[in-house]
Every structure is written in structure tokens, then in C-alpha cells.
Design goal:
With 401 residues, the protein is mainly α. It is built from 19 helices and eight strands. The protein folds into two domains: 261 residues, no CATH class; 101 residues. Strand 3 and strand 4 form a beta hairpin. The N and C termini lie far apart (67 Å). InterPro entries: ATHILA_Orf1_C (IPR004312). This is Arabidopsis retrotransposon Orf1 C-terminal domain-containing protein. It comes from Helianthus annuus (Common sunflower).
């Protein structure tokens, strides 16, 4: 009986020569298992509520679901899987695969509901199946400037350039889940940037499409690239057939936990034993910084062809010195904003607050860090610091990053 059941998953007839050839190739590749978010770690660093607030809907399910896989199911699926990426979410010819010897054809919307990304009633919701899939070349630099430092390069930009440590954690989580891949070099690829952009701006993300596309690319790979996403395949197969108990189940998916984050140099351990994320080596991260540093620029939009990290002398990025001066003038001297004359004594606390306000405003608009600012930005900062209380206060009270 068991041999008959196993043959349904592992044998291919004469009309399935392509599937048989794929099966032979797949046998040379190992299977790698996913990881999910670690609620214990996020609670320890006081980021669980924030994680749940910014990661929502199907993406939250994809990053937190506990999965396990069955090797025979994974092999049959990838041997017969066909994905038509040009289909509409409700098109029933988008996804084709064989399950237990029977061929099935379903839509992307059905795929998402079957594996549990959302309920059947929510399958037609555009927020679940009509979200963002990719970013144009002209949008990538502006998207990166909102969350990271420097100029974005999809082949070399590291996650250490992300300003928010929670985003670094989510990026590593993507490596082990939705954008599962074998290496963890820390590079923020285009697929990662799309997800982080949607998280940061609270835009809907087409998770079923991204998962199916990644499955399709993984199917085309060769050894030694591992086979991924077996946990989602197992959920799909359980919906359509009875899986024999004799089939060996994998361990449950692991977690991106304390040990991984410590190896990433992402944790700050205080003398009193408390643990938090750290922004740079040896400096604890204050979650309130995300409210200012990650707000979209209110007065400035990047030109379509400009690089946010470029200086104005190179023709892109931050506006020239006069524009920066006008921006400071408008922000600090607007009606209702208290100003300080050059002759008025300013306390250290007031000066520190004003200087930090200028820094945060420029950092947001330019997408750069304190040390990464150009000379013209530093000159403008010094000029306005003198107007707020003197050069000495600038030198003493400038924020340390």
C-alpha cells in the first residue's frame, strides 16, 4: 500500500519526460529549511509591538508561520511546477503543478488562501493580491534614501547601511523566509528593497506573487543551490491530497534568534543585563529615533535620475547650499517657531535640542548620516548653530552617532 502511495508522488509516465528530467536534477540538490521571526527576542529588545505594527497582513504570516516540509511532496511539486507570472491574480491558469499524481491548476489568489496567507473571503481583496511587486530603476534610489545611507547598489549595498536595526532584523528574516536563499552575505537585493519599502511606507505587497516568483527561480537553479520553500509546498499538498504517514517530515522551522542577531553584531548588552538593538558598535538604539529619521522629506523630492547620496556639485541628490539655507530658514523661522538671536544666551539643553533638530532634518532630506554629510551641509549647520547660540555650543552639543 505504501509503495503505491509513494509512486503517486515520485513516478512519472512517458508523457512527463520533462518532469522526470527535472526530478533527476532535483535529486542532486539538498533541501534547506526556513526560519521565522523570534517573538522571544523581539520581546527582549522591546520591539515586538513595533514589529507587529509595521509588518502586517500576508507578509506577517509569511515571516512568522511555523513550517515543516515533506521531501517527496517538495520533489513532485518542483518537478511539475509552472508559473505564469503575467496572469492576473484571479486567473485560474497562473499556477500549475502535480500533487499525488494529479495535475492541478489554480490562481495566485487561490494559492495564497490555500497556504494560509489570508482567508478564502479575503482572496479577492486587492491589498492581498494587488500590491507592489517591483520598483522601477528611477524609484530605487529614492526608496533606499528613506531607510538607508549612501547610494543604493543592488549587488553590493549591505544591510549595515540600514538606519533602523529592526529593518536589519527583518532583512535577515527575509533571507530565511519569503526571499529564502542559501547565502546570508548581508546584501540588500532588489527583492529585499521592495519588501522594506512596503513596510516603511505601509504599502500593500503582493506576497503570493513574490513567493511564487521565488519558487519559480529556485526551480530553475542547479546544484549546489538548495531547494527552498518546502514548508509552503507541504501546506499546498495537504489541501489537495492525503500525505502518507510513512513520509518523513522535516523539523519545524527554526527562528532568527538571539544567537543569529549576536553574530550580526545587532545587539547591545548593557551592564544591568538588559538587551536592546544597537545602531553602531557600542551604542544602544533609541526606538524614538525612527519617528524622525525615517519620516519622508516634507519639502524635497528627489529628481527621477538623481542619486540621493550625491553632492549637489555632481548634479543630483541634495539641493545646493542656497536651497539648504532656505530650508533651514523656513523650518526654524516659521511663524510660531521660537527663535534665538545671536546675542541671546541659550542653555545647553536648548542648544542641543535645536542642533539635533537641524541634524535630523538634514539627515532625513539627504538620506545620509552625520559623518556622511558633505562640506556644504556642515557649513550650513555651523552657520545656523552660531545663530542659535555660538560655535562653542555647536562643537559641544553636536549629536554623537
Amino acid at each position: 500500500m505504501y509503495s503505491f502511495q509513494m509512486s503517486k508522488f515520485t513516478r512519472f509516465n512517458a508523457s512527463e519526460l520533462d518532469a522526470r528530467a527535472r526530478y533527476e536534477v532535483l535529486q542532486t540538490r539538498p533541501e534547506e529549511y526556513p526560519r521565522r521571526a523570534c517573538t522571544d527576542l523581539l520581546t527582549m529588545v522591546n520591539q515586538l509591538d513595533r514589529f507587529n505594527n509595521i509588518v502586517r497582513g500576508p507578509l506577517h504570516v509569511a515571516l512568522t508561520t511555523r513550517l515543516r516540509s515533506v521531501h517527496q511532496c517538495t520533489m513532485e511539486f518542483y518537478s511539475t511546477f509552472i508559473f505564469n507570472s503575467r496572469c492576473e491574480p484571479s486567473d485560474h491558469e497562473a499556477v500549475t503543478f502535480r500533487c499525488g499524481g494529479t495535475t492541478f491548476t489554480i490562481s495566485m489568489a487561490q494559492f495564497g488562501s490555500i497556504i494560509g496567507l489570508y482567508s478564502d473571503e479575503e482572496a479577492g481583496n486587492e491589498e492581498n493580491t494587488g500590491g507592489l511587486r517591483d520598483l522601477d530603476a528611477t524609484e530605487r534610489q529614492a526608496a533606499w534614501a528613506q531607510i538607508g545611507d549612501g547610494i543604493y547598489n543592488p549587488s553590493s549595498t549591505k544591510s549595515t547601511k540600514l538606519r533602523d536595526p529592526l529593518y536589519r532584523y527583518i532583512h535577515r528574516l527575509l533571507t530565511y523566509s519569503l526571499n529564502q536563499r542559501h547565502d546570508s552575505s548581508g546584501v540588500v537585493g532588489l527583492k529585499d528593497l521592495v519588501v522594506l519599502h512596503c513596510i516603511h511606507n505601509q504599502k500593500p505587497l503582493d506576497v503570493p506573487y513574490l513567493l511564487l516568483r521565488n519558487m519559480h527561480l529556485n526551480r530553475l537553479a542547479h546544484a549546489p543551490t538548495p531547494i527552498f520553500f518546502g514548508g509552503w509546498v507541504y501546506r499546498l499538498f495537504k489541501h489537495f491530497t492525503n500525505i502518507p504517514r510513512s513520509f518523513e517530515r522535516s523539523p519545524w522551522s527554526g527562528r532568527v534568534d538571539y544567537h543569529i542577531c549576536r553574530a550580526m553584531n545587532l545587539l547591545y548588552e548593557a551592564e544591568d543585563g538588559t538587551v536592546s538593538f544597537q545602531r553602531t558598535q557600542g551604542y544602544a538604539w533609541n526606538p524614538q529615533e525612527a519617528l524622525v529619521l525615517h519620516a519622508p522629506p516634507p519639502h524635497f523630492q528627489y529628481p527621477p535620475q538623481g542619486d540621493p547620496g550625491q553632492s549637489s556639485s555632481q548634479g543630483g541628490g541634495f539641493p545646493n547650499f542656497q536651497s539648504l539655507h532656505d530650508l533651514l530658514q523656513e523650518t526654524l523661522c516659521a511663524p510660531g517657531t521660537p527663535t534665538t538671536s545671536p546675542t541671546t544666551h541659550t542653555t545647553g539643553l536648548e542648544l542641543s535640542s535645536a542642533t539635533l533638530t537641524i541634524y535630523k532634518m538634514i539627515s532625513v532630506a539627504s538620506g545620509s548620516t552625520w559623518r556622511g554629510m558633505g562640506a556644504e551641509v556642515m557649513v550650513a549647520m555651523k552657520t545656523w548653530s552660531r545663530r542659535l547660540g555660538g560655535t562653542r555650543g555647536w562643537l559641544v552639543m553636536s549629536p554623537q552617532v
